[in-house]
């Protein structure tokens, strides 16, 4: 479950931005090439955030597509399937571009400071 490593880094970044404030939500944009599974990402974030300022935060995950260019017929389309084939001719000889980003788009903080015993390292 590669989502755990991804979420550990995100939680570290979020906690640095939080500077002790309680985090209520975060929005993360992940490219389709990362093959992130929404449920697994949510569980990994919950584990990574346990005991910190983002412990009860709601995470919105946005999967961005990649561009699929078929070498056989020239068709260009978008897909969120990392094992994409050409939707027009079915050929698997495709070039994939984009869809490899991992961006923390926003963080929302609560009114009161968080009461945490763990400090970001």
Polypeptide structure, described:
The chain is of the alpha+beta class and 121 residues long. It has a domain at 3-65 and 98-110: hypothetical protein PF0899 fold (2-Layer Sandwich), CATH 3.30.2320. Helices cover 23% and strands 36% of the residues. It contains two helices and six strands. The protein has helices at 3-18, 38-49, and strands spanning 21-31, 58-64, 66-70, 76-79, 94-97, 102-113. The strands form two sheets. It has a three-stranded mixed sheet with strand order 2-1-6, covered by helices on one side. Strands 4-3-5 form a three-stranded antiparallel sheet, with no helix packed on it. It starts with a helix and ends in an 8-residue tail after the last strand. The model is unreliable at 113-121 (pLDDT under 50). Zn(2+) binds at residues 70, 73, 86, 89. Pfam families: HypA (PF01155). It comes from Nonomuraea longispora.
CATH topology of the domain at 3-65 and 98-110, what is it called? hypothetical protein PF0899 fold
Largest sheet: 3 strands, mixed
Terminal Cα separation, in Å? Answer: 23 Å
Level of helix content?
A: 10-25%
What labels would you give this structure?
alpha+beta; three-stranded antiparallel beta sheet; hypothetical protein PF0899 fold; 121 residues; single chain; three-stranded mixed beta sheet; 2 helices; disordered C terminus
Short description:
With 121 residues, the chain is of the alpha+beta class.
Which SSEs are present, and which pair or pack?
Layout: H1 3-18, E1 21-31, H2 38-49, E2 58-64, E3 66-70, E4 76-79, E5 94-97, E6 102-113
Parallel strand pairs: 1-2
Antiparallel strand pairs: 1-6, 3-4, 3-5
Helix pairs in contact: 1-2
